[in-house]
Each structure stands twice: as C-alpha cells, then as structure tokens.
Amino acid sequence: MPGHNISEQTFYRWKRKYGGMDLADAKRLKELERENSELKKMLAESMLKNRVLEEVNSKKWYALRRRSKPWCMWWGRACARCEGRVVT
C-alpha cells in the first residue's frame, strides 16, 4: 500500500481480521489477547512447578533420614527425646 509502508497482504489480513469492528472492539480484542497470553504464561509456570514438586515427591528420601545422629545433634542442640544419645 503506497504511503503506509505495509504490504498488500498485510493490509488485507488486517482488513479480514478487524474489518467489521469498531475501534473500541479492536482495542478490547487486543486487551483480551494480551490477557490470554499472560494467563498462558501463568499456567505454564504453574504446570512446571507442579511437575518439579511431583518429581521431588517421587524421590526416595529414606536414605537421608538414616543419619548417625538425630537432627538436634546436627544443629548443636540436645532435645528431650534423644537426650543427646547417638542414634544409629
């Protein structure tokens, strides 16, 4: 299209997409598209977090629990439950 620096194909694509809309409708459409994009990103992040949590939850953590000392002694404290004994 002369004077607008866009191709004829772009012009007709825009005309087909926005041809029967008012300016307010076109602005609302753009706003909804932007919102939809943000929601898709949020969903993808949420799904990734769920997948990571499922992976962490599926690990066998029993090996970490088999320490030579109870947790209180690792942190330099004695508790009433173990009374400072070394539990194997």
Measured between the Cα atoms of the first and last residue, the distance is 82 Å
Shape: rod-shaped
Strand-residue proportion: under 5%
Helix content: 55-70%
Give the total of beta strands.
Answer: 0
Radius of gyration: 31 Å
What is the averaged pLDDT score? 79
Instruction: Please describe the biggest sheet, giving its number of strands, its sense, and whether it closes into a barrel.
Output: none
> What class do helices, strands and sheet pairing give?
mainly alpha
Instruction: Count up the helices.
Output: 4
Poorly predicted ranges: none
Write the element-wise H/E pattern from the N-terminal end onward.
Answer: HHHH
